Amino acid sequence: MAVDTFPPIICTVDVVLLTLHDDALHVVLHLRDREPFLGMPALPGGYVHQQEDRDAEDAAVRVLRDKTGIASPYLEQLATLSGPARDPRGWSISVAYYALVPRQLLPVDAAQLRLMPADRLPALPFDHRRIVELAVSRVRVKSHYSSLPVHLCGERFTLPQLQSVYEAVLGEPVNKVSFRRKMDELAMLEPIDGELELGRANRPAQLYRVRREFRRTLSLLERGLGS
Kindly report the CA angle at 191 between 185 and 194, in degrees rounded to 5? Predict the structure, then answer.
């Protein structure tokens, strides 16, 4: 009895690494070092290594580290994309993730990396533009009701600085009184004892950091920022 044989399915992970630059969301792209699409900017991605990776997230952490030098920032699964037309090498499936990282943690001398505005992307291979659009939409929606944007901040920040990050991600102003009330509800911040931001014309501002339990997870609001 004949046994049907099928070509292997390509299984990869792709990561949308987002940061803030010039008060706007930017995507970190990696110049491809092999065909297909040799030399084109693309999302950091790669094959799942079945002998090495415990799961798809483990593969995403490895790929992000190898392609960008970033070690495991906030990382969340975004979507699974599949089909025969998305990769010229054959029928493929990709588990997509998105990650947020402060701008100052990006390597400044990485020749293979490109930082591009999320709303003004160059031509991208595969279905990477669609993946970026999905990630940006997810981040903006979740930012209305969660602590997600704090992962774009450095280790220490003031409340006005954090509000500016939220506004940059959302693309709209946020009422100061409402914002501070929502930050209290999220309960994700702790003041740094004795730490103030000095050197401004107005009075010194308290510096905060994220509580340990929320450094790799989210705090959620029952109602969004505009409620």
Answer: 160
